[in-house]
Amino acid sequence: MLEERKKRVLQAIVEEYIKTAEPVSSGAIMNLEGLEYSSATIRNEMAELEKMGYIEKTHTSSGRVPSAKGYRYYVDELLEDNKITVDEIDYISKKLETKVNELEEITQIASSTISEITHYTTVTIGPNTDEQKIENIKFVLLSPRMMMAVILTDNGLVKETIIKFDEDISEKQVGTLSYMFNNKLKGEPISKIDRPLEKYLVDEMKYSVNLIKPIIEQMKKVVEEEKVHLEGAKQLFELPEFNSLEVAKNFVNILDEKELMADMLNTGITKDINVYIGEENEKDELKDFSIVTFKHRIGNKDLGTIGIIGPKRMDYAKVISVMKYISKKLNDNNE
Asked: CA angle 86-76-273, nearest 5°?
């Protein structure tokens, strides 16, 4: 545990570096509010913090920058999560008043709002569907050999998919199929769609396996796929860190790999808000970035996960303050 004075100096260095992207000297923080120590005292504390590994010297300046250890201590011990302005509160409130037809839209609105306020890239994936219960399955005939399936869960999640057949199908058959699948699956976890084929077939049914099998396969596919949604991808390129060709190239590769982003949001989620700094990320492609993940819920309903990607110099206080306010506002609106 750091002494109080070292805490204040480390907090000042982290927040000044986040603001300026320039290595921080003792003179730069000497007169900051709440840090009225002498220049000699600040230099001594900075020397101690450097020995302890919380800050480090750059090759191009006599100033210091936070190390990964310093950022971690700041996030865990020093961060204040009330860094949100009145204007931002008003803006969030107006955005969240938007009428939506599906719960997935709420997550996208929340994601875009976070990106607009923080100027970082946001990534979202939907909730884990395995234990959501099926509330209704509806089949709609689009043509003699094409049908749309709509799956609604008790969590408000809607999944749609198109199923194609090798033989014609009638409206009457669609009605019978709708009755059969609801009878077998309504109230069951969505994972039960993957049950053996024979569980769907009953003696009185005259349908061939060629008709039933593509329905099961396509429904299984659509509930298992993780749709990744991006907001504000261009905004990071305006930051000085992205003057590095390697950093910019890594970020472009991340954007191209939807599976990597889905893994990023699904890995190691232990709390509603999780912060991964640089090398703490399991994937090598993410070593230059910090990731903040936010488990998005309204009451007991899991709406998915929102991830914020930024440089290690991310404004963690702003990101977490905005996340927490959006979460509170959404839950207040739905009481």
From this structure: 65
| Beta carbons within 8 Å of 55's beta carbon, 6+ residues apart | 10, 13, 46, 49, 64, 65, 66, 67, 70
d(Cα 96, Cα 122) in Å, to the nearest integer? 17
Amino acid found at 329: K
pLDDT at position 206: 56
SS3 content of the chain, % helix, strand, coil (to 5): 50, 20, 30
Low-confidence ranges of the chain (pLDDT < 50): 203-204
What's the CA gap between 171 and 142, in Å, rounded? 10
**Distance in angstroms (rounded) separating the CA atoms of residues 232 and 238:** 11
Strand 229-231 to 273-277 pairing: unpaired
Q: Which residue has the tokens 């090798």?
A: 166
Q: Provide the 10 A C-beta neighbour count for residue 208.
A: 11
* Reported pTM: 0.76
3-state SS assignment for residue 123 = strand
